[in-house]
Amino acid sequence: MERTIRKRYNMGGYSEYDLVNPDHMIEAMWVQKTPLSAPIGGIHHLVPETTVNIAISRLVNTRGSASSVAAFVFGPLNKPFTFKLVPGHQIMAARIKPEWISNLIGISSEELFNKIVDLRDISHTLNDQLLSILDQTSSEIEIIQKLYHILKNHHGLKSEKYKLSDYGKSAIELIRKSNGHISQSQLTNYFNISDRHLRRTVSDLTGFSPKALCRNIRFLRTLEYSDRSSKIDWADCAVKFGYYDQAHLINEFKMLTHLTPNQLMQTRKAESVFSNSAL
Length: 279
Hints:
Layout: E1 5-11, E2 14-19, E3 26-33, E4 43-46, E5 52-60, E6 66-74, E7 81-84, E8 89-96, H1 101-105, E9 116-118, H2 124-136, H3 140-158, H4 166-177, H5 184-191, H6 195-206, H7 210-228, H8 234-240, H9 246-257, H10 261-277
Antiparallel strand pairs: 1-2, 2-3, 3-8, 4-7, 5-6, 5-8, 6-9
């Protein structure tokens, strides 16, 4: 199979993959797995994020056989969540840009806020297509590559049904490319529209206001950078990722996760040690 992804990020049992050819709809592919040898009682912490995830889930036993197979959709999240890590549990997923989810499966991102929905309740056809992947391969990499291709083809069948505002799509992409470091006034001046029109359009497409979208993207970029750092200088992070100062960074972390940056990183590092120690 043609290689469509490349690993760019790993944290504990979580691995994220970029697309070799950037896609307008799919932001990334990812895998979350808990080794069979992991002790009971592990917790995975989900931070708030604006994307929607379409996922395949399974439990793999010591013989390599899969059970509890399911396909589901979840997100976006506007508050932190936790779930128990079950030994042998694997999730293979596509992270979908929220403005495209209506186009893809006919349900808005706002309808999915803080929810996990069985894909059968949305589309039996797509659900069956995704689960059929597991009959073709057990490789996680091949699974997410096949998942990517199915979603691309499914999107092609529905693309004419839902039309997105051109400037709305462009405004959201500018927010992403700026890593959340762009003001609402810069966006309204660039597109020559009112603040109210911009807020309504971006909110209709994503479920988030431009300001909230910027805040979440800036937070996630900072968090990923921090995950990769052996020693974190939060004042330096504040400058690097567009916060006013270190106090601003701390306040936004606390608002989004209910934890200070140091508390959040201690939690994430502990989870990484838990997952890696079981490998």
